[in-house]
Write a structure and sequence with these properties.
Blueprint: E1 9-10, H1 15-20, H2 32-37, E2 51-52, H3 55-75, H4 85-91, H5 131-139, H6 154-163, H7 194-197, H8 200-203, H9 241-252, H10 263-275, H11 285-306, H12 311-321, H13 324-328, H14 332-346, H15 355-368, H16 382-406, H17 447-466, H18 469-473, H19 477-496, H20 514-529, H21 540-562, H22 570-588, H23 594-597, H24 602-617, H25 622-646
Helix pairs in contact: 5-6, 5-22, 6-22, 9-11, 11-12, 11-14, 14-15, 14-16, 15-16, 16-17, 17-19, 19-20, 20-21, 21-22, 21-24, 22-24, 22-25, 24-25
Subcellular location: Nucleus
InterPro entries: XnlR_reg_dom (IPR007219), Yeast_MetPath_Reg (IPR052202), Zn2-C6_fun-type_DNA-bd_sf (IPR036864), Zn2Cys6_DnaBD (IPR001138)
Organism: Colletotrichum godetiae
């Protein structure tokens, strides 16, 4: 009778069978084809093979391990029980991995030291690479928590991974290999050194975001201090043309996304502080926090476009944190502004608290102040009402961006909001005695965030209507088509009604470029047409619509990249990855012969564009380098199939 372990089966073919395009029985420890040919099977040497084993065999192993543990325990010295390091590593769950565990020091009096894995144990921390794991890593850029919902695309990533079986002759799982071969991905580090284990380039390469590091971007700058440090006054001067340039970039870029600060007020405060550093405004914690956060956000936003050094932004951020607690004491509205400025900063640079926590805090503060209800604004001066609406709808937009990325419930419910949005007027046109509606025909930069707000509302409705299992279950086919058609029309109207002309600025601001609106239109269209609870199975026409939307979104973001006006932040990395998944799925799942589908080479061309984008993003995000190599392997397989089709 054959031993039980021969019943184990690998999930993919061995390399020899795959290369020879022969059917592999995938039995372990080596396949019968290689065994019969008396050649070495790749299963014998490849430690990345994923396999299934009979339950009885696994239980027998568990019994053996239990028996050996008892035997080992009896051989331990009586000084105290200390878990074996390898057993610890295998039994710790993901949350425990973030805690310090102790073991006995042979040369010390029972002193606990932090547990550090040996190089031999490191493979145990890693899982098989897949689109699902990469999506988790990218999504968790916003958070250290674990739940990913339907709108995050996690289920879609799993579906895409399954569809890729069509690329293998034996329809086995498509496996990604040699992803960690580049020197910059796994540098030569001393794994027994605490400082080397803290280096972000190491943790950026882990496939599982929970195992060793909760958020890939926490402390990604090697020179960034772990805690706010006090900087000498003479090293940070507000009297420079460079500071003026950062302020201009902030109000051209971040202010037209989230209008948190009144421009005219800010300029007056800055003038007072520059004229007299000892004046009352200069001593105000809130004013100081605003000034330094504007510089920090302006600097990090600019760095996201130019991919330049972040140390200056970190310096400004740490300077702002010196005034953080004092700024919170200026009342609830000031505290809300302080929190939202940190959210704005975290979209580009996550050295501070994670974005998910901050957005939730800001949303609950706004709801607690009644900023979602129109009755709260009755009797308020026009300027006060306008500023509060800008704050409220800023946190609303932030909530939509982060919650949709993670597939989590919104902190602010649309049904609870009955206040009208802010108006598209210049900051200097909003006054206690002025009527904001009277200036509605005057061109204003505020038309941009107002239009982006409409996009967030459409995205919110896509999430609640398309990705809700409860709502979708009760709808007929006709009702589902009506929902999708209505949302598609709203996206069309949004794209057609974009602000024109866009504000003219010398700065490379992504959302002041028409390609940004095209990119977001097609990106949300792909979100609408990919498999979802509303349409779990796609018709051929929907597959083609998804392919078109994915292709066009990739081409538009590639245009922005070549025009040097793309923000290389984690949100765009996630968006590009999602668009790439949509393209791969829509291309591979089409019922026609795959070689004929690939014949026009459009899909291959688009994938090559994403490879270029991921290569650029890998400068800041190490995980983008691995995604690039995964996409390269699919592109190579597509090209091979095209050549086979020609032959």
């Amino acid at each position: 009778m054959a031993p039980e372990f021969l019943l184990a089966q690998a999930k993919t073919s061995c390399k020899r069978c795959h290369r020879r395009k022969k059917r592999c029985d995938r039995s372990l420890p080596q396949c019968r084809s290689c065994s019969g040919a008396q050649v070495s099977c790749s299963f014998l040497d490849d430690d990345r093979v994923v396999a299934s084993y009979p339950v009885i065999y696994v239980r027998s192993l568990e019994a053996k391990v239990h028996s050996l543990e008892k035997e080992l325990e009896s051989l331990r010295p009586p000084r105290g029980r200390v878990p074996d390091s390898e057993t610890r590593l295998l039994n710790l769950d993901s949350s425990d991995m973030q805690m310090t565990t102790g073991h006995e020091d042979a040369n010390a009096n029972g002193t606990s030291i932090p547990y550090e894995p040996s190089p031999d144990q490191l493979p145990l921390l890693q899982s098989s690479p897949s689109f699902v794991e990469e999506l988790k890593i990218l999504s968790f850029e916003a958070t250290a928590d674990r739940h990913l919902g339907s709108s995050s695309g996690l289920s879609f990533a799993k579906l895409t991974q399954t569809v890729l079986r069509r690329l293998n002759p034996d329809k086995a799982d498509f496996s990604f290999t040699n992803l960690e071969t580049e020197d910059d991905m796994w540098p030569q580090l001393n794994f027994f050194s605490t400082s080397d284990l803290s280096d972000s380039s190491l943790f950026g390469g882990f496939r599982d975001p929970f195992m060793c590091y909760p958020s890939m971007l926490d402390g990604f700058s090697p020179t960034a201090p772990a805690e706010p440090t006090s900087l000498p006054e003479q090293t940070v001067s507000l009297e420079s043309s460079h500071v003026d340039q950062l302020i201009r970039f902030y109000f051209a870029h971040s202010h037209t996304l989230y209008p948190l600060i009144h421009r005219e007020e800010f300029d007056k405060i800055l003038d007072h502080v520059r004229a007299d550093p000892l004046c009352a405004l200069a001593q105000s914690s809130l004013c100081q926090f605003r000034i330094w956060m504007v510089l920090a956000i302006g600097s990090t936003a600019q760095c996201s476009v130019t991919l330049s050094d972040e140390s200056e932004s970190t310096m400004y951020y740490n300077k702002a944190l010196e005034h953080f607690e004092g700024a919170l004491n200026y009342g609830y509205m000031a505290a809300l502004e302080v929190v939202l400025l940190q959210v704005s900063y975290s979209f580009f640079n996550q050295l501070g608290p994670n974005t998910w926590t901050l957005v939730g805090l800001g949303a609950r503060m706004a709801i607690g102040l009644g900023m979602h209800a129109s009755s709260t604004y009755e009797g308020l001066p026009a300027d006060v009402s306008e500023k509060r609406k800008r704050l409220f709808f800023s946190v609303y937009m932030m909530d939509r961006v982060v919650s949709i990325a993670l597939g989590r419930p919104f902190a602010i419910n649309d049904d609870d909001v009955d206040v009208t949005p802010f108006t598209a007027v210049h900051d200097n046109s909003v006054g206690a005695e002025s009527n904001p509606l009277g200036n509605s025909f005057k061109s204003s930069a505020m038309a941009v965030p107002l239009h982006i707000l409409e996009l967030r509302r459409v995205a919110s409705d896509i999430t609640t209507s398309v990705y809700s299992h409860r709502k979708s279950a009760s709808l007929s086919v006709e009702q589902r088509e009506e929902v999708a058609g209505s949302l598609h029309q709203r996206l069309l109207d949004w794209r057609r009604n974009m602000p024109f002309p866009l504000p003219n600025t010398d700065a490379a601001v992504p959302h002041l470029n028409s390609s940004w609106y095209d990119f977001n239109y097609y990106l949300h269209l792909a979100m609408l047409y990919r498999p979802s609870p509303l349409f779990p199975t796609l018709t051929q026409s929907r597959v083609k619509m998804l392919a078109e939307a994915a292709s066009m979104s990739i081409r538009q973001v590639s245009n922005m990249h070549r025009q040097q006006c793309l923000a290389y932040n984690w949100l765009n990395l996630l968006s590009i990855f999602t668009a790439t998944l949509c393209l791969i799925y829509a291309t591979t799942v089409q019922p026609d012969n795959l070689a004929s589908v690939l014949k026009d080479k459009r899909a291959v061309t688009d994938l090559d564009l994403t490879i270029e984008l991921f290569d650029k993003l890998s400068v800041k995000f190490p995980v983008a380098g691995k995604i690039r190599r995964m996409v390269e392997q699919i592109s190579i397989r597509y090209k091979e199939m095209i050549e086979v089709g020609k032959a």
